[in-house]
DNA sequence: GTCTATAATCGGATAGAC
DNA sequence: GTCTATCCGATTATAGAC
């Protein structure tokens, strides 16, 4: 049904349903973990029956993989082509921090699902990470190292610098619950992210500043 | 049986068994999450039967809470009294980073269990965090802010500085799987932690250096 | 304290009507 | 594509002998 655009995408309705299921699944997986998330709970959050959900995704694991795929697609789309070797290092890193923090603010569930998978050892998604994430990371590290070789930034460990930037920015999604307790609010506010951006940018730009 | 020290701790044997169960539980919970961890798997890892385990811990949730309690006890014991207001700020922060990284290296499972609980919203442990972690954090933040008021360190956002230090150091336990893939090794080596300590210390000390 | 056996429940998955 | 009904395995937890 609903054939459109002659040939491609013959089921726009199905795509919409799948998208709403995935969106609900991200929330529930982030909150409960893979095993803790009941398919019935995801279905309810998406507004359909468990059996109906399993018409679209034959198994729970298939749904989980799809969730991780979508999360990674979104993340990669935001992060690729940020590390421009010809840009001003401080500007590039500012944009990098901003993009990562923005992802934490706009898609905290996505960040948490991915984090849980990695913390558990990436038993299911390790191969995808190796194929899709590692190359991007390596490229960014190469850019940093070229800057160092050119004397444009201080000679720091590029790999661990990137690890640190990831950790700092991602924690505003993953550990938001603990941060909220410390800050004494129900949840993180926009101003918290602004202060985070300022502090992290300060740390990164000072770290790479040539003496 | 085994009454010792006249009055206190009448069951040293029981304490030993419980400790071995908790140690196994940390590993399994860290790998599989709360719901994903089967009590039978924990029992097997601890070297006893599931039914026997449940003689020591009547419910799975009781075991989980005990695991979190022990994790937090260990962490607090290592972290308290590190932020000495009278010490040299750079030295204090160096020791702080070192202690946190050491915890990530020596107790990665503990860090991961705690991280998973927080990522899932700390639904079970939020109150404990509020009572036991937040006061310690607030005290550390106070020390930082006093240093700023005294002009001993640069005027940065003390709260977010602490968040960043936590995130950077903790990530070497929580995201070790992803780091290993990037580094192309099976697991993180001692030298990786040394480089991490150098980089993180560099970032923190540069960030707080007065202009 | 440790064992065998079993109860009770939950959750993923399937079958088949419409 | 959506529904009703149901199966089946896994898992927590309990009962009771020794």
From TrEMBL, chains A, B:
<dbReference type="Pfam" id="PF08362">
    <property type="entry name" value="TetR_C_3"/>
</dbReference>
<dbReference type="InterPro" id="IPR050109">
    <property type="entry name" value="HTH-type_TetR-like_transc_reg"/>
</dbReference>
<dbReference type="Pfam" id="PF00440">
    <property type="entry name" value="TetR_N"/>
</dbReference>
<dbReference type="InterPro" id="IPR009057">
    <property type="entry name" value="Homeodomain-like_sf"/>
</dbReference>
<feature type="domain" description="HTH tetR-type">
    <location>
        <begin position="15"/>
        <end position="75"/>
    </location>
</feature>
<protein>
    <submittedName>
        <fullName>TetR/AcrR family transcriptional regulator</fullName>
    </submittedName>
</protein>
<keyword id="KW-0238">DNA-binding</keyword>
<dbReference type="InterPro" id="IPR001647">
    <property type="entry name" value="HTH_TetR"/>
</dbReference>
<dbReference type="InterPro" id="IPR013573">
    <property type="entry name" value="Tscrpt_reg_YcdC_C"/>
</dbReference>
<dbReference type="InterPro" id="IPR036271">
    <property type="entry name" value="Tet_transcr_reg_TetR-rel_C_sf"/>
</dbReference>
<feature type="DNA-binding region" description="H-T-H motif">
    <location>
        <begin position="38"/>
        <end position="57"/>
    </location>
</feature>
